[in-house]
Amino acid sequence: MQAKKRYLIVLSAGACLALLFCLGGVRLPAAGRRSRHDRSRRSDQPWPHYSDPLHRFQPWDREDTEEFNLHTSPRQKKEANTSAYRGRRCRMDSCFDFSACHRNGFKVYVYPPQKGEKISESYQNILSSIEGSRFYTADPGQACLFVLSLDTLDRDQLSPQYVHNLKTKVQNLPLWNDGRNHLIFNLYSGTWPDYTEDLGFDIGQAMLAKASISTDNFRPNFDVSIPLFSKEHLRTGGERGFLKYNSIPPFRKYMLVFKGKRYLTGIGSDTRNALYHVHNAEDVVLLTTCKHGKDWQKHKDARCDKDNAEYDKYDYKEMLHNSTFCLVPRGRRLGSFRFLEALQAACVPVVLSNGWELPFSEIIDWNRATVIGDERLLLQIPTTVRSIHPDKILSLRQQTQFLWEAYFSSVEKIVLTTLEIIQDRVLEHGSRSSLMWNSHPGGLFALPQYSAYQGDFPFYYATLGIKPYPKFTAVIHAVSPLVSQSQPILKLLVAVARSQYCAQILVLWNCDKPLPAKQRWPATSVPVIVIEGENKVDFAFTVWQSFPERIVGYPARSHFWDSNKERWGYTSKWTNDYSMVLTGAAFFHRYYHHLYTNYLPATLKSMVDQLANCEDILMNFLVSAVTKLPPIKVTQKKQYKETMMGQSSRASRWADPDHFAQRQTCMNKFASWFGGMPLIHSQMRLDPVLFKDQVSILRKKYRDIERL
After folding, report:
1. More exposed terminus of the chain, fewer Cβ within 10 Å: N or C?
2. Helix (H), strand (E) at residue 508
3. Which of 61, 616, 693, 704 is catalytic?
4. DSSP string of 142-171?
5. What are the phi and psi torsion angles at 557 (to 5°)?
6. 421: exposed, middle or buried (C-beta count within 10 Å: 0-12, 13-18, 19+)?
């Protein structure tokens, strides 16, 4: 018996060896000796020489080549054939030409509109946002990125916005170049019944900025996932978030809500059809209706009438604003309008859309603002959200407000975020960190070209645990000629130079009279640099060190809404509140000069230059838009008037009767570009201890401040 077993084992082993030999898995000893000989012979030449240069990776259409069919497995062929678009293997290093970007900077060209082609309002808003940005160029030779004027937003063949014959129109574009360095925007793709992600034309090597894109079709660090937004979404500015109070505990009337369509058949129907299992009509209110579409009654099921009746009992906005969590289940497509609605309402999104690549996932840490669920585990959702600690809930809600206002509140912000993401890829050495993208004020206001070190920005001192540099540079704008040594500008220069925190003084000479001789300027203990333009202090600085992200200064102004003229007004009247601090006597971080120069459009800066006015208003607009905070006013007596500096020169801009009217015009022009009024009123004024108290001057730290 034992001999028989041994015989069978030997026979089996021999059969296996024969099979391996036939398949090439075992080599003859001679071959092994030859291999060792070859290795010893190559030891004298450690690095092999290849006569043919390496061919660069070709991720685009190889499916029809003989080499592809010969060396590609059936599984790989299947993946390639089921891809929504041909260039699914595209990445920045294989389908993008960096040379133009490095040569001319990150510039974006929009094709001119083609005659007879209709453009939807939403797509026109996208194009207008690009054309109004600092990235835009009208010269295709300078462009790094190209955007079509052909409307590609809605690729549902049943939609009235669908553009026919797009394949031919795109291929005939003179700069198309198989889509290289092109960006295609899309909100809707596919149609009934399967709603695939196919756009209906060959995108070649183009990047996609697409809503409702799946992780299977999303090409990391190449495509950009954008949110689904409605045609009513504001082009600029955008509404603020609805979180008014950081209440503790942060609970609302409802724990979890949803109100939307229920699909009886087809893709996207499973999750919404099962929501009634979780609905309890108390703190979990999940409502669906079958009443949509022309023939909904033909397909209604036994639950439709009851669901429709329950659906009509609740107001959607009331639910949205009074719930802690908002369910965001997939619809026909992976994305949903509910996502942005929940973000704005400070209702923490609970996402139920397996396989959805969340918007701007490349830069946004969504774990800090959402709860990611699983469609297959719907019944566990209520238990999951109830288990989240109140502190975590408050943190989630606060982050929803930041993300909404930073990246999603307008079409312009969505477009600019998309472009900034691509620019970070192109200029990788100057890209933003995760901290910049996921903390206030956000990546759109933190320009990496300014510095690679976060400590050089005024927003991150507290996060990094550091303090601002303990010295300042004073900038004095001179518009009046030097007539006598008693002029206010010279007194100001001497007073500023005495500050223990002053490092240097820059005088911007913007007067029509020649620059005075060097001996006319007073002697100071710090360097004074005078720059000719072509076209009290210690206390204020110590206040600014505590608020380095804000403007801190002396003379204040305010804005108001004139209901009769239906426009914004500017006033210098003394009131209890203010919204601007004039930069002629103020401290602010030098980064805002960089932001002013590189973020604001040329149209606004040209307007300021032509008027020789309003630069202080524009700076206040910019800083308030970034910080969402008002400036800070410090001690000032009521002796200051804008006309004071004009008394010595008729040429002074303050003596111009049109000066005030120009500032009114500036207010409304700036508000239009920002998409709203970013200025915020404040009634806070910071004075030093014992200011104006009837005590000895020797007891006061800032002894000269009352004489300013």
Report:
1. N
2. strand 502-509
3. 616
4. G-SEEE-SS--SEE-TTSTTPPTTHHHHHH
5. -135, 170
6. buried
Residues 536-588 pLDDT 10s? 556 678 777 888 999 998 889 999 999 999 999 999 888 889 999 998 888 99
Bridge partner list, 284:
256
Do 159 and 273 lie in a common domain?
no
Same structural domain for residues 93 and 159? yes
Does 221 share its domain with 276?
no
Pairing of strands 552-553, 556-562: unpaired
Distance, in Å, from the CA atom of 227 to the CA atom of 250, rounded to the nearest integer, reads 27
Residue with tokens 């003596």: 655
Using the structure block, give the residue that is written with the tokens 């809503």: 211
Is 61 among the catalytic positions? no
Please name which of 356, 408, 90 lies closest in space to residue 210, comparing C-alpha atoms.
Answer: 356
Q: 360, 436, 348: which is closest to 392 by C-alpha?
A: 348
Map residue 329 onto helix, strand or coil.
strand
In this structure, are residues 350 and 373 in contact, taking their beta carbons and an 8 Å threshold?
yes
The reply to whether 528 falls in a domain is no
Which phi and psi (to 5°) does residue 354 adopt? Answer: -60, 130
Pairing mode, strands 371-372 and 348-352 = parallel
Give the separation between CA 268 and CA 356, rounded to whole angstroms.
Answer: 13
C-beta separation of 154 from 122 below 8 A:
no
- 548 and 672 share a domain? yes
Give me the pLDDT at residue 576, please. Answer: 82
Pair 283, 370 in one domain: yes
Asked whether residue 521 is domain-assigned, the answer is no
Residue at 574 is within a domain? yes
Same domain, 221 and 307: no
End-to-end CA distance of the chain: 115
Report the DSSP beta bridge partners of residue 508: 477, 531
The conformation of residue 529, written as its DSSP 8-state character, comes to E
CB neighbours of residue 563 within 10 Å: 7
Number of domains in the chain: 3
User: Which residues is 580 bridged to in the sheet?
Assistant: 557
Number of Cβ atoms within 10 Å of the Cβ of 205: 22
Residue span of the structural domain in which 88 resides:
79-225
Q: Which residues pair with 207 in a beta bridge?
A: 183
Residue 177 DSSP code: G
Q: Are residues 267 and 375 in the same domain?
A: yes
What is the DSSP code string of 412-470?
Answer: HHHHHHHHHHHHHHHTGGGPPPHHHHHSTT-TTT--TTT-S-GGGSTTSHHHHT----S
Residues 418 and 226 sit within 8 Å (Cβ to Cβ): yes
Has residue 239 been placed in a domain?
Answer: no
Sheet with 556-562, strands from edge to edge, namely 567-571, 556-562, 580-581
pLDDT at 512: 74
Domain-ending residue, one of 383, 404, 425 = 404
CATH number of the CATH domain containing 272: 3.40.50.2000
Question: pLDDT tens digits for 449-483?
Answer: 898 889 999 999 988 999 998 999 998 878 777 77
Query: Which pLDDT score is estimated for 42?
Result: 38
The helix or strand, by DSSP H or E, that contains position 372, with its residue range, turns out to be strand 371-372
Looking at residue 62, what is its pLDDT? Answer: 39
Cα–chain-centroid distance for residue 463? 20
| CA dihedral over 552, 553, 556, 562, signed as positive or negative | negative
CA torsion 136-140-144-149 (nearest 10°) is 70
Q: Tokens 């979404």 — which residue?
A: 233
